[in-house]
Every structure is written in C-alpha cells, then in structure tokens.
Amino acid sequence: MLSRAASSTSRGLAPALACLGSRQKHSLPDLPYDYGALEPHINAQIMQLHHSKHHAAYVNNLNITEEKYQEALAKGDVTTQIALQPALKFNGGGHINHTIFWTNLSPNGGGEPKGELLEAIKRDFGSFDKFKEKLTAVSAGVQGSGWGWLGFNKEQGRLQIVACPNQDPLQGTTGLIPLLGIDVWEHAYYLQYKNVRPDYLKAIWNVINWQNVAERYVACKK
C-alpha cells in the first residue's frame, strides 16, 4: 500500500512543480523557543548551528534549485529537470523535515502523550514503552545519516514507525503522514554527545512536544 501511495505522490509532483513560475521563495522558520531552551538535553550551540546554518542551507539550496528547475521548465529542458530531482528531494526534504522537527520539540515536553494519541499508540504498539523502545531502536539503527519517524498510514488507519535515509521526506517517499521525527544526522547531536547516538536518543524524549504530535495526529485523520 505504501508503494501505491508513494507512486501517487510522484505523479502529483509534476503539476506542483509546474506552478514554480508564480512561487514564493521558501524561508527559514523561526524557532518557537530560544536556542538554549532545550538544555540540558540539547545544548544551545547545537540548536543554533542546526537551525541557523544547516536548516538555512537547505532553504537556500532549495530556492536555488527551484529557480534552476523553473528555467529548465520554461525551456522544455527535460534532461535538466530530471538532473535536478535529487537536489529537490534532498533540500526540499531537509526543509520539510526540520520544519516539523522544531515543532516536535519543546522545553515543556517529555513524559507521555494523552488521550486519542496515547490510545492509538497502545493499540498499534502494545504500550507507550514498547513504542518508545521501537522508535529509539529504529532511529539508532539508521546507517549514516537519516531520520526515525512515527507516521500515520491513512489507508490502513494506523500508526507506523519507519526510518528514512538522508533527508528523504516521509510522506513524499512512503506516503505516511509525519507525526514525530527524530533527526539522527550527526549535526543534531555530535557537539554534545560525540559519537554516542544512543545517549542523544535517550535525552531527546525529555523534550518531545506531545501536544504538537497529538495535534498532527488529529489533523491527519480528518
């Protein structure tokens, strides 16, 4: 089912890209908290570099790539359009993923979700602890760089945990609607946790914004 959803997403890409002529440039979103607000779990230096340098680079490169794509589209240059697809996927995915990630975190986060989201987690994973253990394991097991995700499968009406490599966007590559993403690129943790990714993954649960995740869950079911 996921392959059909991903195929549908790919088919929907062409008309969306055809609208680039009237597009507005993407911009770096403001964080909903200060760079040091997630300490001691994620320090201010990491947050500043991650947001103002890494995310900003994805936004800038996405705008550049879309301009080039627009030119190729106007010329009917299909070869260049195809050649630009990896850059669109990487930088567009980086922008999408990080925009979700910042809102998935909060200085008032941690603990467990409540209500409908918690019931769905228990239904699909057995318990919150089993869910937490599985998402941690999937995120820890990403080879190189990538993301661990909790997503919603709209066709099946259930939650799923998957990993995506590099900056592959969850919905655009699997069809799952993103609810919670955990960035396991080294730039997300190395300055504080060095090469010990499991320590970072243990700490990040203390700042998960369950209210945001729950809002995403309710919205995607409509």
Walk me through the structure.
This protein is mainly α. It has 2 domains: 44-104, Helix Hairpins, CATH 1.10.287; 115-220, Iron/manganese superoxide dismutase, C-terminal domain (minor pseudopilin epsh fold, 3-Layer(bab) Sandwich), CATH 3.55.40.20. It has helices at residues 2-17, 44-75, 78-83, 85-103, 115-125, 128-140, 170-174, 190-193, 197-204, 210-220, and strands spanning 146-153, 158-165, 177-183. It has a 3-stranded antiparallel β-sheet. Strand 1 (146-153) and strand 2 form a beta hairpin. Helix 2 (44-75) runs antiparallel to helix 4. Its cofactor is Mn(2+). Destroys radicals which are normally produced within the cells and which are toxic to biological systems. Destroys superoxide anion radicals which are normally produced within the cells and which are toxic to biological systems. Keywords: Manganese, Metal-binding, Mitochondrion, Nitration, Oxidoreductase, Ubl conjugation. Pfam families: Sod_Fe_C, Sod_Fe_N.
Short description:
Keywords: Manganese, Metal-binding, Mitochondrion, Nitration, Oxidoreductase, Ubl conjugation. The chain has two domains: 44-104, Fe,Mn superoxide dismutase (SOD) domain (Helix Hairpins), CATH 1.10.287.990; 115-220, 3-Layer(bab) Sandwich (minor pseudopilin epsh fold), CATH 3.55.40.
Q: Considering DSSP H and I runs of 4 or more, what fraction of the residues is helical?
A: 55-70%
What does the radius of gyration come to?
A: 18 Å
Kindly provide the name of the CATH class of the largest domain: Alpha Beta
For CATH, the homologous superfamily of the largest domain is named as Iron/manganese superoxide dismutase, C-terminal domain
**CATH architecture type of the largest domain:** 3-Layer(bab) Sandwich
Kindly name the structural category.
mainly alpha
Strand order of the biggest β-sheet: 2-1-3
Number of strands: 3
Per DSSP, the total helix count is 10
Mean of residue pLDDT?
A: 92
Question: Which oligomerization state do the chains in this entry correspond to?
Answer: single chain
Reported for the largest beta sheet, the result is: 3 strands, antiparallel
Q: What is the CA-CA span between the terminal residues?
A: 20 Å
Query: Any idea what the shape is?
Result: globular
Order of helices and strands: HHHHHHEEHEHHH
Q: Low-confidence parts lasting 5 or more residues at pLDDT below 50?
A: 1-18
Strand content: 5-15%
What is the count of structural domains?
Answer: 2
